[in-house]
Write a structure and sequence with these properties.
It contains six helices and six strands. With 205 residues, the protein is α/β, with parallel strands linked by helices. Helix 3 links the parallel strand 4 and strand 5. Zinc ion binds next to loops.
């Protein structure tokens, strides 16, 4: 595996312990905690392979989107915008958190329009599809790629390539059971890792 010292992967685990909602209806699954555990594991694996990786949030508390974007843009200044990619890690919800819902599956977002972020999103989507063969893949194919587009702050207020993954639904019983299993968490880590590494190989060509 090729090492690249000038390239850095930033991970943004969504929300915080103090964010209202963002949990399963029974309260056992917490989005902030899952995102942090996944980010920590991705960071550990990337570093093992010689890549630079940082979690931009290390505390359990919520940090505002403006502050998160500012941290990312400081890395862009330090490394050069083209040498930074950001993955914001989330878990979806279909309802208001009070009851179990039917929606399930994986989706990934970029900012509107065609950018290099679409390439990263596609790499992660393809890895997710391969690693979660029985999972519902929620794609928007209207613009010839699989990502959905939204003006989320972490995608529009950051200068670098940026995607936001919604890793299944925290208000779907089957999805939560999977996310809480050892295998489930491993698969979520692995799909990000494979997607990130495929992207890095692609842009190095
Ligand atoms: Zn979220």
């Amino acid at each position: 595996m090729k090492r690249d010292k000038d390239f850095i992967v930033l991970l943004d685990p969504g929300h915080g312990e103090n964010t209202p909602g963002k949990r399963s209806p029974d309260g056992k699954f917490r989005e902030y905690l899952f995102a942090r555990e996944v980010a920590q594991e991705i960071e550990r694996e990337l570093r093992k392979s010689g890549y630079k990786c940082e979690r931009i949030i290390k505390c359990a508390m919520d940090v505002s989107l403006a502050e998160r974007a500012k941290i990312v843009n400081e890395y862009c200044k330090e490394y050069g915008t083209n040498n930074v990619i950001l993955i914001s890690i989330h878990v979806n919800a279909a309802g208001n958190g009070e009851q179990w819902m039917n929606a399930r599956g994986f989706e990934i977002y970029t900012s509107p329009g065609k950018t290099k972020s679409d390439v990263l999103a596609e790499c992660i989507f393809e890895a997710a599809k391969a690693l979660l063969p029985d999972m519902n893949m929620r794609a928007d194919l209207s613009d010839e790629d699989h990502d959905k587009e939204a003006r989320f702050a972490m995608l529009t207020q950051t200068k670098c390539v940026a995607v936001l993954s919604e890793n299944l639904f925290q208000d779907n019983r089957e999805d939560v059971a999977f996310l809480c299993s050892l295998e489930g968490k491993k698969k979520i880590v692995e799909l990000h890792l494979q997607g990130i590494l495929n992207y890095i190989n692609k842009i190095k060509k």
